[in-house]
């Protein structure tokens, strides 16, 4: 049985102080797949923060988690308090705020969130309409997804990115949570391509602005190292197995 870190019980002001401080270390509890852990891992990695993977013993741990599901992240602040973070998107936005990836003001934050949400919808649709389909029918489901949902997402996002100056970012001149979300959706679609389906309609030639976003994310020093790491390859394999691609 693996023991989980104990969240510090303290007044909200104490935890809030710990939450805004820098120099935290992180432990993530999540299965050996990308899934809902992928963006969280990516955000911690791009920030150059140390994080550790806790061994999963789900039958035992489930009851100990806040919503009986994963991911859960345990953050230990430099001042010693441990914060228990749960619900994937709440964790993502929390980390994005810490790493200044939510834009410079409320308006930019709204823009980041709208691109994020739109990409999240395209990702969820892939999950239900393609990954949720088993056997030979998955090829047809993927083709339909590429032609309909993905084609629409591509058209709209290429246009929005163009309006921001085709600079490889959705908002302003720098990386935000929206950029990471898009880069990971592209990675996921390229990884989870059903054999026999049409090519994923995402490439430097076909979708130059979306591709530029992915390149901007991938060219971050820590992300480039992560993508080549053994652990990232293991998670690719775990993800492929989970969805019966291998
Ligand atoms: N709304 C939750 C959903 C989490 C979720 O469904 N997690 C799945 C893995 S991706 C899980 O914990 N499955 C195991 C279980 O439900 O027992 C979130 O976004 O964090």
Automatic annotation (TrEMBL):
Pfam families, A to Z: GST_C_3
GO biological process, one term: glutathione metabolic process
Domain GST N-terminal positions: 24-103
Domain GST C-terminal, residue spans: 105-239
Organism of derivation: Podila minutissima
Protein name, UniProt field: Glutathione S-transferase
Xref: PROSITE patterns: GST_CTER (PS50405), GST_NTER (PS50404)
GO molecular function, one term: glutathione transferase activity
InterPro entries xrefs: Glutathione-S-Trfase_C-like, Glutathione-S-Trfase_C_sf, Glutathione_S-Trfase, Glutathione_S-Trfase_N, GST_C, GST_superfamily, Thioredoxin-like_sf
SUPFAM superfamilies listed in its UniProt record: GST C-terminal domain-like, Thioredoxin-like
């Amino acid at each position: 049985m693996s023991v989980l870190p104990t969240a510090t019980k303290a007044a909200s002001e104490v935890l809030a102080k710990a939450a805004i401080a820098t120099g935290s270390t992180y432990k993530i509890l999540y299965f050996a797949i990308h899934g809902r852990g992928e963006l969280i891992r990516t955000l911690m990695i791009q920030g150059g923060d140390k994080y550790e993977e806790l061994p999963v013993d789900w039958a035992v741990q489930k009851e100990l988690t806040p919503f009986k599901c994963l991911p859960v992240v345990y953050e230990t602040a430099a001042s010693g308090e441990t914060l228990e973070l749960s619900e994937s998107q709440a964790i993502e936005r929390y980390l994005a705020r810490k790493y200044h990836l939510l834009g410079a003001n409320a308006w930019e934050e709204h823009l980041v969130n709208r691109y994020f949400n739109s990409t999240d919808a395209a990702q969820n649709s892939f999950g239900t309409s393609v990954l949720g389909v088993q056997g030979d029918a998955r090829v047809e489901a993927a083709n339909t997804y590429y032609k309909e949902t993905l084609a629409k997402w591509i058209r709209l996002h290429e246009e929005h990115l163009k309006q921001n100056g085709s600079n490889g970012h959705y908002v302003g001149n720098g990386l935000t949570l929206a950029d990471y979300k898009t880069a990971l959706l592209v990675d996921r679609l390229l990884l989870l391509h059903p054999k026999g389906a049409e090519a994923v309609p995402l490439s430097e030639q076909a979708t130059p602005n979306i591709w530029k976003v992915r390149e901007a994310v991938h060219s971050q020093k820590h992300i480039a190292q992560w993508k080549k790491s053994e652990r990232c390859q293991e998670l690719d394999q775990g993800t492929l197995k989970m969805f019966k691609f291998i």
